[in-house]
Design brief:
single chain; mainly alpha; two-stranded antiparallel sheet; two-stranded antiparallel ribbon; disordered C terminus; transport
């Protein structure tokens, strides 16, 4: 069976992300990658801890933690929008690739550049509308009932996620324009690996 791939194993790409960008851009890209990984890991761990604590409180003390639902809501938003940039960086987004796979290398390269540029534009378009949405929430002055935080603060992750993802796809398009090979992201080479083991 063939599945989506990279130029390194999944475990290596998770632990040792190396940007395909030169110089200072590569340093920034690597730093953002590590920051995203920390945010995602911390978010998942905090959500698990919060949910377990709430279940224990409900069954042991007979009462839920009143702010538990709001904390999980904040963490889900954070994980979702930090995760889109992380997925783009590691070439992990779902791809409908039947036509793409049937093309020769040159055709795949052109199509990947078009896909990356268009996806980047869509991300920047969503960034614009997410900022408008946050400004609208800010003007209404609504707050979270249990925690008392202004609601707009929990949605700040949305424009940040769209910005990072848009930049990542733009850099992917540039990487494909300046490289001989086809790249799914700045550090992930297009291709397939055979995961079947011989018996």
């Amino acid at each position: 069976m063939l599945i989506g791939s990279a130029d390194m194993t999944d475990e290596e790409s998770e632990k040792h992300y190396r940007s395909g960008l030169p110089g200072f851009l590569g340093t920034i890209d690597t730093f953002i990658s590590k920051l995203e990984a920390v945010i995602l890991a911390l978010g998942v761990l905090l959500m698990a801890f919060n949910t377990i604590a709430n279940v224990i409180a409900r069954f042991v003390f007979g009462d839920s933690i009143y702010f538990s639902g709001e904390i999980n809501r904040i963490l889900i938003i954070m994980i979702t929008f930090a995760g889109i940039g992380y997925a783009a960086r590691h070439g992990r987004h779902i791809r409908m690739s039947a036509i793409y796979d049937a093309l020769p290398v040159g055709g795949r390269k052109v199509l990947m550049i078009i896909i990356a540029f268009l996806t980047s534009l869509v991300m920047f378009f969503l960034l614009y509308y997410s900022v408008i949405y946050i400004l609208d929430l800010h003007s209404k002055g609504r707050i979270l009932p249990a925690l008392g935080f202004p609601i707009w603060t929990i949605y700040v992750w949305a424009p940040l996620g769209f910005l990072i993802t848009g930049i990542q796809y733009l850099l992917t398009a540039i990487k494909n324009l300046t490289s001989r090979d086809v790249y799914l992201s700045t550090g992930v080479l297009d291709g397939y690996k055979d995961t079947e083991t011989e018996v």
